Amino acid sequence: MVIPSILHTFSEKSRACIETLERYKPDAQLLDISSRSATKRAAVLVLLYEDAGNLRVLLTTRSKKLRSHPGDTALPGGKVDETDNDVAHTALREAEEEVGLAQGCPSVHILAVLEPVISRFRLTVTPVVALLSDPSVLETLKPSEAEVDHIFTHPLEPILDPSLAAHESDLVPIGGEDWKYEDEFHNSNDKPISWAPHKIYRMHRFRSAASPVEGLTSDVLIRTAEIAYAKSPTFGRWPPNQTPGFAFAFEAALDV
User: Fold this and answer.
1) How many CB atoms within 10 Å of residue 35?
2) In this predicted model, what pLDDT tens digit does every residue of 16-71 receive, in sequence order?
3) CA 20 to chain centre
4) C-beta of residue 224 within 8 angstroms of C-beta of residue 127
5) pTM higher than 0.70, yes or no?
6) Nudix hydrolase domain: which residues (predicted)?
7) Residue 57: strand pairing partners
8) Distances (CA, A) of 76 to 115, 204, 251
9) Secondary structure of the chain in HEC code, one letter for each residue
10) How far out from the chain centre does Cα 92 lie?
11) 219-253: string of b/e by CB count within 10 Å (b at 16+)?
């Protein structure tokens, strides 16, 4: 829990988001992924901080040398280690390895653990949402040469209303290498899921200051923002004629 003396330093809007996230309680059954082997479980850190009265999130561009998801935007995180105490331990340990965020940093406050999501490789990924109360810590972060090419941040609220990203001064050029689309801030496309028969996945992409925020990372941030701001996206979140959510994917992944 974020102590009141720290919370008082945030804008009213950010305080409301932080308090809402702290109160959030996901379905306990969805959190129970103990039946999955450690090799199929992972956690990511959604590290929020405030800048100019608005919440932003820490992101990375994965190294192009990696075998999986090279060059993709990612939240710090990775697979569960048998020595990890819980998913928060996993997320923080991986963040230290990838960007140099000290596991014992007193400025990092865990806010919530969200429902797991399923990656395209059928990993069960649990988002751990945390608050960085001292943004100067960001200046000390260094990308792991083996895993991360770039560290950057993105505002959280434009994940629900992409037009709000118009206030960002350093977005990559439209039509350039990092945003090869004509859409100004966001686009999406639907494609079948090979391991979930007759189901469709809607891929969301957001233009950023670096690589596009897309796929599982965008799914996690959309859900985080929905909870924090207590509102829905301005765009079509889910494919037509399909029940909202990833329950079907979770069940299908467990069956494989």
Assistant:
1) 8
2) 999 999 999 987 766 677 667 667 899 999 999 999 999 999 999 998 888 777 88
3) 17
4) yes
5) yes
6) 39-177
7) 48, 154
8) 17, 19, 26
9) CCCHHHHCCCCHHHHHHHHHHHHCCCCHHHHCCCCCCHHHEEEEEEEEEEECCEEEEEEEEECCCCCCCCCCEECCEEECCCCCCCHHHHHHHHHHHHHCCCCCCCCEEEEEECCCEECCCCCEEEEEEEEECCHHHHHHCCCCCCCEEEEEEEECHHHCCHHHHHHCCCCCCCCECCECCCCCCEEEEEEECCCCCCCEEEEEEECCCCCCEEHHHHHHHHHHHHHHHCCCCCCCCCCCCCCCCCHHHHHHHHHC
10) 14
11) bbbbbbbebbbeeebeeebeeeeeeeebebbbebb
- Domain map (residue ranges) of the chain: 7-249
The pair of structure tokens assigned to 171 is 């977005």
Average pLDDT over residues 169-186: 97
Give the domain 7-249 fold. Nucleoside Triphosphate Pyrophosphohydrolase (3.90.79)
Distance CA 175, CA 218 (A): 20
Those residues with Cβ within 8 angstroms of residue 211's Cβ, 6 or more apart along the chain or in another chain: 61, 71, 72, 73, 150, 178
* CA 233/CA 210 separation, integer angstroms: 22
What 3 state SS string does 50-107 have?
EECCEEEEEEEEECCCCCCCCCCEECCEEECCCCCCCHHHHHHHHHHHHHCCCCCCCC
The first and second tokens of residue 160, run together, are 């629900």
